[in-house]
Amino acid sequence: MELLETLQLLKISDISHGWVDTVWELDFTETDPLDARIEGEVNENGLEAFKAVYQHLLPYATEDRAVTESVWTLFSQHGLSGSGLVVLLHHFVQTGHSKTASVPQRQCALRAAAIYFLLLEIPGSITSKVFHPVLFDKCLDTVRKTWPQDLDSGKKRKKETAKSSQGDPKGRKRAKPPRREDRELEDEFEDGDQDEEEVYISGQDLLQLREGIFFLVKNFLRLLTKFPLKDKPQNVQHCVQIFIALTNFEPVIGELRFSETQDINRMKSLPDVAYWGLRLLCSPAHGEGNQTVRRVFHRLLYVILMMSGGDGSRPCLLALTQQVVAAKDMAIHFVSHIVDELKDDVLPILRTLLQHICAKVADKTEYRTHGAQALVRLLAKLSCAEYASFIQWLYEYSCNAKTQYRQFGLDVAMALLEQPERTPEAPLPPEQARLLQHKFLVQAMIFSRCSDRTATVRSRALACLAQCLEQQSPSTAEGIQELMHGTVARTMLDMDHMSVAGNSEGTRNISEANPHVTAGVFKTIEITSGEDGSIFDARDTIAMLRQRASDEKTNVRKSSLQVLMSLLKIGMIPCTPEDLSTLQDRCRDPALSVRKQALQCLTELLAAQPENSVVQKAWLTGVVPVVMDSESSVQEKALDCLEQTILRHIQSYSRFSDKDSRQRLAWDLLTLLSGESQDLCRYLSKAFIIWAKQDKFSTVFVNNLISHTETEHASAAWLLLSKVAGSAPRLNYGKILEAWDHIVSNEDITVSTTCHVLCVIGHIAKHLNGDTRERVIEDIMKWLKGFHAPIIVIGSCVSALQRLVQRDSVEDTQRLLNRYCGDLVSLCDSYLSNLMLSADRSQNIDEELVVKYLFTLGEAALQCPAKVEKRVFLLVQSILAANVSLDPVEGTEELPASQPLSQFKPSTMPTAVKAHAFITLGKLCLQNEDLAKKCVPALARELEVSTEVPVRNNVIIVMCDLCVRYTTMVDRYIPNIAACLKDPEPLIRKQTLIMLTNLLQEEFVKWKGSLFFRFVVVLVDPDPSIARLCEFCLVHLLLKRNPVMFSQHFIECIFHFNGYEKHEKYNKFPQTAREKAMFSLKGPKNKELRMKIYKFLLEHFTDEQRFNITTKISQNVLASFVDGLLPLHLEASELLSDTFVVLSLKEMKLSAMRSRPEEELQPDDDEMAVANAVMQVAQKKLISQVQKKNFIENVIPIITSLKAMLEEMRIPALKDLMAYLREMMQDYRNEVKDFFSVDKQLAAELEYDMKKYEEQLHREGEQGNGSTVTAPDANTRPGTPRPSVCLSPVPSSSARGQGPQGGASPCMAGAAGTTPQPMWPSTPVFLTPKPAGTTATRARVLSLSTAALLNSAKKVAESLKNQRRNSVSSTSPAPSSQHTPLNTSARVARQNRTPSSSSSSLVDRAISTPDQTIENVTFGAGVSYISRSLLNSSDNEPRDSEKKDANVLYLMSPDRQTPQPRQWNVESPITRTKVRRSQRTPLKPQN
User: Fold this and answer.
1) What's the half-sphere exposure (Cβ side, CA atoms, 13 Å) at 170?
2) For residue 360, how far is the Cα from the chain centroid?
């Protein structure tokens, strides 16, 4: 009876039966409000009424022994309606769903839903019709609807103090907790009343609501144990949805456990009970077979992928918060538990889940990483056979066309490699056993992607390969070892459905490729197969890595360096000079990050192999020059590498130990720098200057160096001291002077050590006292006057002498220099004079001694110009020529100052003497301008006539030095110096390139005349090292100073390299015949070289320059031929051919049009990178529109006109024009049609020409070398106009043909009984019918419009064949095509007409202009079908009007018998084309 009393608190007896029936009839969808009085009374009783009803109904559901009567019997006995109670509960549930519901209303809704579930739990609820699917879902939705939505959506909640249960007028907004539920669920169940303001809910209220939700869910779980939902799939789906949302409701403390013995009453968190509910739903009581498991796994898919979605709407990513990641881990744990519990029954569903994880993972680095880890954890639940089967599927997935899939395949492969290699429990077939091995993942899934088409995939694959090498796992190392040593015959599956797309993205496609379209589908994903081609070769592997190191993408180059370094470091491949040079070259990469990576790789490799001398040399060659890098960060990186490797390991000799590999390495490197690699010391000087500013050289460091000066490290120690002495705080001068005395007294000291000691003495000279200075000077002068020291030491001695004599005043310093150096000049003058005046000067000469005297003379003369007499000038000249007189000039006692070398006869001196004499002469010229004026012309001539390499080399050096001193004087001879860029000797070419680059950098020389074109020719030098050096000089040294250098000279390059000199502006600079012959690149044989130069220049254009150059080429080159400014003949063919090829190059396209923004994204995938990608897409669209407009307005008119002219003149360049049109029409097809809207026939012909040209190219590819080529008519010469035959007045292409060497618009070819063959390569012809009795002389070439017309007529005739048979009585069977000269069913005949006939309107009218309405259109060119009624039935009868109407053609039925062929006499509309062209305003070339 207590139950009845508590039910009265809900006023059940007062509820209207009509209202209850209405609600049931409307299926709880649209209801009228409850009577306000009843609702008010129930609300007065509040939440306690619902709690009381629940407590009194609970014994009926739990089978309490104290309750023996059925609740449904009790209701019927007392006139209570169970349906009414259900409707009342629905009303309060619905009220609690409102966003404006107060906290008490929400609490009542939760209790009402709990009572409803309790009623369903009571036996007999089904019979009493308590269950309704809509109400069931609504009660379950109370879990979400009563919880404030703004906590998840992040919206600010309004202060609604009046509606708060706490009633606090000063209540504040509660901080938003980091909770986020499924937004898609909110969208699905939202009321739509978004304008209403939500109530303010305090923290205490939230706790109460959370308790109510927890209470409701626990009751629902109890219901699931008793109430089967097997026949209610929609409700099961909704249950899964709610439970999945609850898994992320709040954080979980501790670890979730899924065991059958777990007590639900002890669960404390909502995610805990939610997963328990999912486990209950997976039982057979709630679904057929594994349908519920499939639904649960499908929902958990998006939890694992950290997305919101899964209900058919577009998923969106969740922020990677700790809660989201924890929810992902719990979902994986639950799936693993279900698989362990249900075992083999759910393995197919698990496989489907794994496939969908692969197909729908977000294309972001962090999400892919989490997804790969989740996949690996779930794969652990598969048996070896199932695992192998999935790896097979994963491999084909990794070869899919989508970049995202190939990238994720790499992530999964790396995650799998971190796991132990599987060992099969039972024997497996070899194909499956191979899939379990780690080397399969390395070879098939990682290495094969290193040549992927997409840069991001290539980069990621190479990074993975480098990571595998760093891990040094035995199984992984074995797989890589096989790749490197070529022991892999075929590591992929040998089945037809497995393959590797070695250098592309593969040919496989996933049937469920779009995760958004298939969001509601959870089924197995099938993959189509591709080709098989997976044989590895060790040489190909290494070559691939080297190629990747030069990849166009920065990230790919960086990753390839890591791989190459790892292979070399662990000794998997030998450290060959070629591989080490790859690392060295990348130290000068254009990309800053690649240069840093190369420095790091070389340093790591050196640390791994410190004893390898080859690696030591490579490290020095790669790292030391980078101290001169223009980027400060790269420079700092190189300095850091040098400091860490060398400076930090310089210890006192007493502490040196051979066992310390780092100390030994430092001195080995310094020894190389002082010996074999001493050329790098000039870069090292820059490093020491920077270190000196940073106070790196302490007194302790200097003393440590000095301690090594008398050991085996003496040479290296003096090298460092020579660099440090200038900036060291204080040196031990006594120790240095002792070393000098030791050098003076011993002759076995090395030359390099002597030079370094002299350099140190020069640095400390200002700190020495007078007596010590004089003593050292005396020793140096003794050396110099003895002429026994090597040349290098002589130079160091003079430099040290110059520092030792320095005084406070310049006059005193110069006086001392004149004293000491003047003595040296006098000694040299005396010796050389005696030598030249001797009778046998050319015999028994001490070549080495003469060279020392010459060198000393030049060095000393620079220090004391006043002591150099005019006799010395003539003395040096006499060594270079044979007829120089040393006698005084008549009437004077002086010798002539000099004689012009151009009048000299060749000298008989040895080559070495002459070479050094030129150097000395250059030094003298630097001090005497008059001498320079007389010698420079002779030096320039020497470059042309000298056959001795050392002489030419030294003359170039002298000329370039003089250019710095006397710029104007030498400037006119720059072409002579530039001519040496084509010298037969590589040394001369390299020296000239370096010297000219220095002059251009310092702007002593300008880009005038032919210099630029001489310079860029070195890009195709036969020596690859010189070509690379030229590229470096142009791009990294010269282009930075003059960014418009390439674009300014590009058009003239086309004229110059083709030797075309008829343009009024281009290629007009002076050049000799010798220079023309040396630098000529004209002709077909050099076309590849010209293209290489064009491509290089275009690659370094900016987009603005590319855009402008296209217009300039059209207006300054092509328009000049169209307007008649340049003659159109065979000489211009190569020029036009190059022009069209250049316009077709991919390098000519704007970089914004060529690149893919998504490929440029860095692996970080941050918001800024995404924003930049979006901006690039917008920029690309804008630039595309501007470029298309420019092409249509400025290029197409010129191209179409020039096309007609080339066809008329039979110029071979027509083939390249067609190739260019084919390239452009792919991008601008729609724009071209719009442009030709006023002339549709011309547009259609142009499109038709392109179609036939492509067909001809396809035929040529199929025929290959086996095709039969018909020789062209010997009487027809290319470049001459020819008559053409046309059936319609086509304005631009109706009378076009093709020369024998060029490609034209293809037409049909063939003759009676023969297979059509091209008349000339890429130039098919159309044979015309000949009159009977005449001998066919040659095939006549018709235009494309003619072929199109005849093909169309053939199609129409064949389609109407049966109708015409009925209307024509005198017809006979159509002749076969084998007996038709034109290989068509159409024939040309004449019609007899009279002026009064009905067809009189056809007079002087072509076939394309019918006199009646067009009913049947043959094809898109605007040519009409001529009705049969217009043809006279007596076609075979000759008429007198034939001659009169000879310019009108008609098509005869193919059913007629073949008449005798007659000579075609058709007027070509070429005249019309010329008239129209003449009416166009000529295009003026732009300067």
Assistant:
1) 0
2) 25
Q: What residues pair up with 1452 in beta bridges, in sequence order?
A: 1387
Joined tokens for residue 711: 């050991």
Contacts of 610-615 spanning 24+ positions with Cβ under 8 A: 610/661, 610/662, 610/664, 610/665, 610/668, 611/661, 612/575, 613/668, 613/672, 614/575, 614/577, 614/580, 615/568, 615/575, 615/580
The residues near 343 (Cβ < 8 Å, ≥ 6 apart) are none
Q: Which residue has the higher pLDDT, 1247 or 587?
A: 587
* Residue 308: partners with Cβ closer than 8 Å, 6 or more residues away: 180, 182, 183, 184, 302, 315, 316, 317, 318
Q: State how far the alpha carbon of 623 is from the alpha carbons of 588, 615, 619, 692, 785, in Å.
A: 10, 12, 6, 19, 41
| Radius of gyration of the chain measured on its C-alpha atoms | 47
Token pair recorded at residue 600: 């790091």
The closest of 345, 341, 335, 342 to 379, measured between CA atoms, is 335
In whole numbers, what is the pLDDT of the chain averaged over residues? 74
Residue in this structure with the two tokens 């070869």, named with its chain if needed = 399
Nearest Cα residue to 524 out of 511, 515, 514: 511
- If you ran DSSP here, which 8-state letter would residue 1228 be given? H
What span, in angstroms and rounded, lies between the C-alpha atoms of 1296 and 568?
Answer: 62
Cα–Cα distance for residue pair 806/819, rounded to 1 Å: 13
DSSP code of residue 906: B
Give the span between the Cα atoms of 377 and 339, in whole angstroms: 12
Asked if 1484 and 1302 touch (Cβ cutoff 8 Å), the reply is no
Taking the CA of residue 809 as centre, how many other CA atoms within 13 Å lie in the half-sphere pointing to its CB?
4
DSSP string, 928-992: -HHHHHHHHHHHHHHHHH---HHHHHHHHHHHHHHHHHSHHHHHTTHHHHHGGGG-SSHHHHHHH
Determine contact, residues 511/405, Cβ cutoff 8 Å. Answer: no
**pLDDT band with cut points at 50, 70 and 90 for residue 459:** very high
- Residue 142 has a pLDDT of 87
Query: Which string of DSSP letters, residue by residue, matches 731-762?
Result: --HHHHHHHHHHHHH-S-S-HHHHHHHHHHHH
Report the percentage of the chain scoring pLDDT > 90. Answer: 19
Going through 1127-1235 in order, the beta strands assigned E by DSSP cover none
> Three-class SS string for 755-777?
HHHHHHHHHHHHHCCHHHHHHHH
1352 within 8 A of 1299, measured Cβ to Cβ: no
- Interacting residues of 632 by C-beta distance below 8 A, sequence separation 6+: none
Q: DSSP string covering 1180-1210, please?
A: HHHHHHHHHHHIIIIIHHHHHHHHHHHHHHT
The model's pLDDT over 605-647, given as tens digits with 9 standing for 90+, comes to: 999 999 999 999 999 999 999 998 888 899 999 999 999 999 8
| Cβ-Cβ contacts under 8 Å for 484 (sequence gap 6 or more) | 538, 541, 542, 567, 572, 573
Q: Report the candidate in 927, 928, 929, 953 with the shortest Cα–Cα distance to residue 939.
A: 953
Pairing status of strand 1450-1452 against strand 1387-1389: antiparallel
Beta strands at 1450-1452 and 316-317: parallel, antiparallel or unpaired:
unpaired
Residues 6+ away with beta carbon under 8 Å from 395: 409, 435, 444, 445, 492, 493, 498
**Nearest Cα to 113, choosing from 209, 226, 192?**
209
Separation of alpha carbons 302 and 308, rounded Å: 6
Question: In angstroms, rounded to a whole number, what is the distance separating the alpha carbons of residues 50 and 63?
Answer: 21
Instruction: Report DSSP state, residue 631.
Output: S
CB 50 within 8 A of CB 108: yes
Whether the full predicted model's pTM is greater than 0.85, yes or no, is: no
Under a CB-based contact definition with an 8 Å cutoff, are residues 1139 and 1128 in contact? no
Query: Phi and psi for 1164 in degrees, rounded to 5?
Result: -65, -30
In angstroms, the CA 960 to CA 966 distance is 10
Q: How long, in residues, is the chain?
A: 1487
